Amino acid sequence: MNKMVKTIKEAITLSGLKDGMTISFHHHLRNGDMVAVMVLEAIAQLGISDLNVNISSVFDAHMPILQHIRDGVVTGIETDYMGGMVGRAVSEGILEKPVTFRTHGGRASDIIRGASPIDVAFIAAPTADCMGNCTGKEGPSACGSLGYAFADAMYAKKTVVITDHLVDYPLIGGSIGEDYVDYVVCVDKIGEPSGIVSGTTKITKDPVGLVIADYAAKAIDASGLLKDGFSFQTGAGGASLAAAKYLKDIMVRKGIQGSYGLGGITAYMVDMLQAGCFKALYDVQCFDLDAVKSIKTDPRHMEVTASHYAGPGAKSSAVDSLDVVILGATEIDTQFNVNVHTDSNGYIMGGSGGHSDTAAGAKMAMIVAPLSRARLPIVVDQVLCTSTPGATVDVLVTQCGIAVNPLRQDLAERFRQAKLPVVEIHQLKEMAEKLTGVPKKPVHGDRVVANVLYRDGSLLDQIYNIPVFQA
Amino acid sequence: MNKMVKTIKEAITLSGLKDGMTISFHHHLRNGDMVAVMVLEAIAQLGISDLNVNISSVFDAHMPILQHIRDGVVTGIETDYMGGMVGRAVSEGILEKPVTFRTHGGRASDIIRGASPIDVAFIAAPTADCMGNCTGKEGPSACGSLGYAFADAMYAKKTVVITDHLVDYPLIGGSIGEDYVDYVVCVDKIGEPSGIVSGTTKITKDPVGLVIADYAAKAIDASGLLKDGFSFQTGAGGASLAAAKYLKDIMVRKGIQGSYGLGGITAYMVDMLQAGCFKALYDVQCFDLDAVKSIKTDPRHMEVTASHYAGPGAKSSAVDSLDVVILGATEIDTQFNVNVHTDSNGYIMGGSGGHSDTAAGAKMAMIVAPLSRARLPIVVDQVLCTSTPGATVDVLVTQCGIAVNPLRQDLAERFRQAKLPVVEIHQLKEMAEKLTGVPKKPVHGDRVVANVLYRDGSLLDQIYNIPVFQA
Predict the structure, then answer these.
(1) N or C: which end of chain B has fewer CB within 10 A?
(2) Which of A172, A307, A320 sits opposite B300 (nearest CB)?
(3) How far is A320 from chain B (nearest CA, A)?
(4) Euclidean distance between the first and final Cα of chain A, in Å?
């Protein structure tokens, strides 16, 4: 048995890929990913068309997909996140079929339960052996965890591993096993290291961000959840990271030994592990080089699959045991619904990722955001797109106060006792509007360009096209 | 969400177990396993009956299953191996329904592809957390790998983890993830350490066994397969282990760096890893304490699932890359078919385990056996039960010479060049019969007590009842 094939084209041909099928990619190489573009180019050259592309996240590095859409090679996209450049084209109507947005957990569970079948999965593997055992922890394009790729590899009809670092069989410390892999291709380069991981993720230096971070850390301290066994997830945004830094200081000062840090992992979470704030990290995706190094060398820093991380169809997942998650928002409305899919003009420039998964699981889901951004208020009457339902969002922290979901009077009471500036979310909206004025609702067209599915697969919202007025 | 339940009975009730369903167990606790008996006792007390039991191996420790068969609690058994005590009762007809025998690889693949559905899987877990993340590497009943249990846990409708060592969430270094687990029960004790692993597995001291081992090692050396990258599996029998010891000496002397050792792992394979004979071990089951210690501490010593080990339905498995396997036999016939299911009287006292999986995968499958045992010849005209088809068996090594399957003239030629005593298998049969006489065929009844499935699920052979003559 020999799974090694010389070229991506050969692997595609052997996989039996035909017009109308679904292919999949994962996004651990982030904005350094060269694999999706490489595969789509080969597919185009082979004359295969009308493909549905299920890709866990779309980055600006994937811009060439737009030409493949124009050429009819790609006619559908399913994803959990879409960066601004491809997002703009989708918002302007480049695809006839609406994009399907899922959450990171929902995507894995839909693949596993057969609601989102994949014909051919392409796994970008920083290290692999000739039978397809592979890992993200080693190699010139090392990205750490391959968490999102497991469901693809395990449930696709055919699985192709594409690597630029082939090692002798058997790979030691493999992630995805050969039992799921049909073909292996070795290419010169699967990713641009500078795009795969930033050198280090950086704390904000913006004074507004630091005030928000300080309130966020103090609110967590006051929540009653910060005690031995505490578990925590935070995003990689500057204010979120600053909050993690402040939280670490509190935990170290009070001698609190948490249980686990979760999510996309940054240097700050690794630092908290090493400082004894956590006894373990569950890592579905590494955000920086320190995280990649840590997952490779520290057994307490564990790779998790997307299903184990956040799958709503799993018997349980790590988000179900989560105490606190800090999340961002482009908009939040007075019912605490959060938009992370579109910007204030209605253009797609994001997606849920693990946002609504963690909000649903965590005992306290906290949004950190400035009162306004680019002269637009963050708090609105109704979000343009509901990415995460307000019922699962507990707290909004801004530089001008902390608004607590009315469902969580217990938290509001604790914050007040800790002398934190608790305000009504309507007050935050008014404060913002005093600064920015009341913005006009952006104009959208009447064609649905994206369906936003909640983590359980139900339709949560729809995103409409943005009309393009030509001069 | 709380998966912890107080008693096994409560877990059974919550699982929805009903008359006529299938439950499963794995056998990593070997003859020290207390879980299968504990669960069957609870089921009996709950009044549930007519159960089909899919258990990866049946040991003498499972004798109480016989009473549950008599009581109608258990009416079917599917397994890969059945020890002599339960085997005798089955051979004498205690079950109305024939036992289904599979191979270790075939069992996993049949579970995965849905050909062998499980309603409730019971996982004996030496260490677990409250959400069901579990491992065999730690705890008072540590058994090392949980390789055979993965398919059960992943594909059963309900999965119950039973442990005697509960640790804080999240378990570090877990094997089976919480995403597959419904309930967790903590009991006083899941196994008798002395029965789980022998202190150390022992090389034979029998001079006949040592001659066989010496020939076996020399034959491997002469085969052309013993070079850098060499991969190897051996059983835990005394002569097989002695062969491994001699092989190690050859590899060390010649400076050969193999790739991996496979299978049920013993101290001798660990020793070969540490001596540089292999760069990795793939471990589906630990046979002794040294193996348990090694898999816990050495990252090169890797746990594999049964599917990754030997699943015929997997895209590939480790047996597909295997160079040489050394296996035992209770009988081998002149067509090289091997029986490991019954003794020479026709009584069930074994099973394929990974026998036919590895024989099918390995470039050279070598049977080691003495010319006769208990005054019965090992080589016969036709085995009582075909466990492993002769087409996949290459060599028989006895103390009186080495017989090579006519399909492998290449090997015979290499052995002759190395001055090894190559003989025809018919000659070995004649030599044995000169010593022992020609044995009478045992008498069997006309009722099928077991169907032996080949690894692909096809019917390979059937085992008949042994009539019991009462005085």
Answers:
(1) C
(2) A172
(3) 7
(4) 61
Residues of A in contact with B279 (CB under 8 A): 168, 172
> Taking Cα atoms as reference points, which of B447, B450, B469 lies closest to residue B101?
B450
CB–CB contact B316 A132 (8 Å): yes
Between B132, B170, B259, which is nearest A260 by CB? B170
Give the best residue of A179, A279, A304 to mutate against chain B (max B CB count within 10 A): A179
The helix (H) or strand (E) run that includes residue A245 is helix A238-254
**Number of residues that this document lists for chain A:** 471
- Rg of chain A, C-alpha, whole Å: 22
User: Omega before A170 cis (within 30°)?
Assistant: yes
**Token digits of residue A186:** 């070795």
Q: CA A377, CA B34: separation in Å to the nearest integer?
A: 63
Q: How far off is chain B from A469, nearest CA to CA, in Å?
A: 49
Supply the pTM of this predicted model.
0.97
The answer for residues whose C-beta is within 8 angstroms of residue B51's C-beta and 6 or more apart is B19, B20, B21, B22, B23, B43, B73, B74, B75, B76
The closest CB to that of B170, out of A169, A280, A307, belongs to A280
Q: Cα angle vertex A138, ends A136, A139, to 5°?
A: 105
* 3-class secondary structure per residue, A113-129: CCCCCCCEEEEEECEEC
Side-chain half-sphere CA neighbours of A393 within 13 A: 29
Quick one: B434 exposed, middle or buried, by C-beta within 10 A (0-12, 13-18, 19+)? exposed
Residues recorded for chain B: 471
Query: For residue B301, with 0-12 CB atoms within 10 Å meaning exposed, 13-18 middle and 19 or more buried, which class applies?
Result: buried
Name every chain B residue with its beta carbon within 8 A of the beta carbon of A259.
168-170
User: What b-and-e string marks burial along B37-75, b requiring 16 or more CB atoms within 10 Å of the CB?
Assistant: bbbbbbbbeeebbebbbbbbbbbebbeebbebbeeebbb
Residue B305 contacts residue B147 (beta carbons within 8 Å) = yes
Residue B315 and residue A168: Cβ atoms within 8 Å? Answer: no
Q: Where are the beta strands (DSSP E) in A102-251?
A: 120-125, 127-128, 134-135, 158-163, 183-186, 231-234
* Chain A residues with CB within 8 Å of chain B CB: 1, 3, 131-132, 159, 168-170, 172-174, 177-182, 229, 259-260, 279-280, 282, 299-300, 302, 304-305, 307-308, 311, 314-318, 320-321
What is the three-class DSSP state of B5? strand
Cβ separation of A182 and B315 shorter than 8 Å? yes
Out of A299, A316, A318, whose CB is closest to B172?
A: A299
Judge: B304–A177 Cβ closer than 8 Å, yes or no.
yes
Q: Which amino acid is at B386?
A: T
Among B425, B427, B422, which Cα is nearest to B218's?
Answer: B422
Q: List chain A pLDDT tens, one digit each, 471 residues.
A: 789 999 999 999 999 999 999 999 999 999 999 999 999 999 999 999 999 999 999 999 999 999 999 999 999 999 999 999 999 999 999 999 999 999 999 999 999 999 999 999 999 999 999 999 999 999 999 999 999 999 999 999 999 999 999 999 999 999 999 999 999 999 999 999 889 887 667 788 899 999 999 999 999 999 999 999 999 999 888 889 999 999 999 999 999 999 999 999 999 999 999 999 999 999 999 999 999 999 999 999 999 999 999 999 999 999 999 999 999 999 999 999 999 999 989 999 999 999 999 999 999 999 999 999 988 999 999 999 999 999 999 999 999 999 999 999 999 999 999 999 999 999 999 999 999 999 888 899 999 999 999 999 999 999 999 998 765
Token pair belonging to A184: 């292996």
Q: What are phi and psi of B377, to 5 degrees?
A: -70, 145
Closest CB to B308 among A178, A260, A320: A178
Q: Is there a contact between B282 and A131 if contact means CB atoms under 8 Å apart? A: no
